[in-house]
Design goal:
Length: 718
Amino acid sequence: MNGMGRQGQRSGAGTTTTVHHHIQYSDNFVDTSSSGRWLQSAGLQHLQNFSSDGASSIPPLRFPDLSLISVSVSFPSFRFIFISPTSSFVWFLGKFDLAYLGTISCLFGREYKATAGLQHLQNFSSNGASSIPSLQDYNFYGGGDGGGLGQGMRVYRNAQRGFNGGAELYTEPSTPPVSSRQTGQRKSGVESPTEFSPGILELHSFDTELLPEFQKCTIDLLFFNLVEQESLMLLSLMFQAARAPAIPDDNVLKSFAADKEKTSYVAKIKVVVRKRPMNKELAKKFHETKLKVDLTGYIEKHEFVFDAVLNEEVSNDEVYHETVEPIVPIIFQCLKATCFAYGQTGSGKTYNMKPLPLRASGDILRLMQHTYRNQGFQLLFSFFEIYGGKLYDLLSDRKKLCMREDGKQQVCIVGLQEYRVSDVKMIEELIERGNATRSTGTTGANEESSRSHAILQLAVKRTIEVNETKLPCLVKKLYFIDLAGSERGADTTDNDKHTRGSKLIEVLRDSFVGNSRTVMISCISPSSGSCEHTLNTLRYVDRVKSLSKGNTSKKDTLSSTLNMKESIAMPLSSILPAGSSLDDDVTDAWVEQDEGDDFKDVEDYEPEKPVRREIGKLAEAYNPPPISEDKSRKPNGQTKFNNLPKPTNIKKSEADDDLSSLLKEEEDLVSAHRKQVEDTMNIVKEEMNLLVEADQQGNQLDDYITRDHNVLVASSGY
Ligand SMILES: Nc1ncnc2c1ncn2[C@@H]1O[C@H](COP(=O)(O)OP(=O)(O)OP(=O)(O)O)[C@@H](O)[C@H]1O
């Protein structure tokens, strides 16, 4: 088995050093060139006094709450990222690239401008950039004197990036975009300020990819291209900043800086495999050496690729760091996230999942109390299970719940009790209470086996005021799902395979579409007795991972807009073990809906027509009937979706065709695998028949011998 971390691959080729640090106030670079006249005209003369040998004369520019989250050097380039953890985003990205004679580009938002004495630059859009002195006049584009980049080329740009979807509720109104200067800025043979230089282009695509979440903010960007000398100085400055001690009371933010960095790298779907140690198998002496029918032994090697593989020595803390921690800050940035555990009974799903919500809640509360303090955020906790196609509130005496969709096809659980939580102790108690209420049974592999899918929901909401009316506004949700054993369907008191699993899919449907993150913890047992189940689990999650990878590798066939907006929706059937091949198509309608996500209290939702789901063959493949030893509660009655109307506002896209073909591929693989198993079974059957036949023949022979013996005895007269 190969465990391969894909997320580390972004740093590109070459030696890479990464320094993570946080500063609250950072010295920063500005211009030291002889062409500082432009700075003077722009009112930035105070930024002129740099010397190339260091930062000593650099005036300290203040970046409130600004975090330097990453400085990395990947020869021959250098890149750094600053992000403000406050809701008013400040970006500061840069790249130094020797290959382009030192091209540095910086993007910074209005906060920076305001605090760096650049307030007047905020008026760009309102007056058509007229307040900015012409760069051309100051020979900033190299000019015809052969100076080129080395002679102090300057490019500045103010652009509007991204779009502002649902995020507008949490982002201060940004400075309106500035149109690029249209005329008089290009001299012969020199780059126009309205086009990126190669270095900037590279940065542009690279860093946008790194920071998909931030595309949502409307940001004013100011680009500078500096000469090599200045670039080197900036490099040294950045390293100084990276090494600068954090301010004393800044520990909390410091840790969030690391979170921020992780956020940038969180894959849309992350697959982690955790192997549990041997436990009761050792006592039972499970190990048994066997020979194949043809008496030869062999070892078949399987190769899988995952984001991380955690062995039995790995602690729950490390599991948290590897899986959920990076996605916690994301939910403040209008994303949905889901973490679920998958694997056969007794493989450790509950063991893995139990500590994660507690740790995540702790981090969310920390963020609310520090980074997002006084911003009206609340954390709401709820816990329910899906058993036999029905939903039960685990914190409300197993009250039966209803699932509904609102007008935007957003799923809501009607009647679900939400608890406002403000400390970890309270959360711990709620988790314990919920777990104690969960449906459990005993299986051969696990005395306390979960028989249901348990869904723990952390919702971060914030109240906003419109015309003095307080409106509850849903930010996003983080789900923790402890699935029942994969070797049988837990959602399966209903043996109708066409509806099996559908409830889970319905409930989680929103979590996988649009801008979401999913972490799948695949649990496996080390026991040889579990080999087949382990292989099934690994094959399955490998497939999930390759499917998500397939989405990005098939860029050509996918709509580029879809990629840009990070709106690729994984087919739920490919993510969820009890999957279905859904009819739902990924459209912009989903994306908009995801970004908007205006929230009504669940009680306010009008019961709407639910959506029909076509359940595909995969559900069968991964959802065999329940085992008979289940002794848990069996609620009566089922809710089926067979007769429900289809949504009308969903249309097909190229991406869906592509995903459909991937799904089809998956189905083919499953069929091929099934065929293989059938073939093997047939061979075994044949062997068995031969043995039985031989046995019968042997018996017959015995009979003959006995008869002959009797005849002989009789004839001999003894
Ligand atoms: N990493 C681990 N380290 C130590 N013990 C573990 C680990 N993982 C699981 N176990 C133990 O293995 C047993 C089974 O684990 P658990 O109940 O989490 O399995 P499960 O996959 O949730 O099973 P089911 O699907 O039947 O509910 C438990 O006794 C648990 O304490």
